Amino acid sequence: MPKMIITKMIGSAQRLQAPLNMSAARISGVGAAVVQTFTGADGSPMPAGWIQTGGSVVPTIQGNALLLSSGPGAVSSTVQSPTAVTGDFDIMVDAEFTLQPATADWSADLIVIMDAAHQMISRYQGATRYWTQGYINGGSWVWSTVAAPSVTSVKLRVARIGSIWECYILNQSGGGWYPIGTAQSIGTGSVVVQLRACTFR
User: Fold this and answer.
1) Is 153 exposed, middle or buried (0-12, 13-18, 19+ CB in 10 A)?
2) For the segment 79-94, what is each residue's pLDDT rounded down to a tens digit?
3) How many structural domains comprise the chain?
4) What CATH number is given to the structural domain containing 92?
């Protein structure tokens, strides 16, 4: 059962940094940043406004982070930010994996949703070891992958300038951020942010 922990989220009109031990989540941009920390006694519920949108295991605070658990089987645990993000944004997620299943493929996902037909996912897929960009832009989902090392923590990122959306990963050997797939003109509407721990089988 993979576990994701989120410890802090900073938001405004634009940037999210969160950790599968999501310890930090941050949204920043042209507006003033708003900080949401996931702190509290072990077993405490999520901060006010956050909602669980998928999964049967209720996310809770553990070790001053938000713990997301999924599996076994094709299941996920998903939470959604309390407010919509408008305008340009830069959303980053730090994910730490506290338990990695050996028999199932699993992922840590940062999902940015304008509506059902306009979304982008930045994903680390664990057992098969891929960085993945997925997007839907009024049609079917399109996926791009880059081979990834076996790691216990990752940084995921989705940014938008105007109508152009793009996924990035952080080169853990140095060299900064680089894109997965290609930038896409998806739209300028307000978005919500979801964080998800997922098993596929």
Assistant:
1) middle
2) 888 778 888 888 877 7
3) 1
4) 2.60.120.200
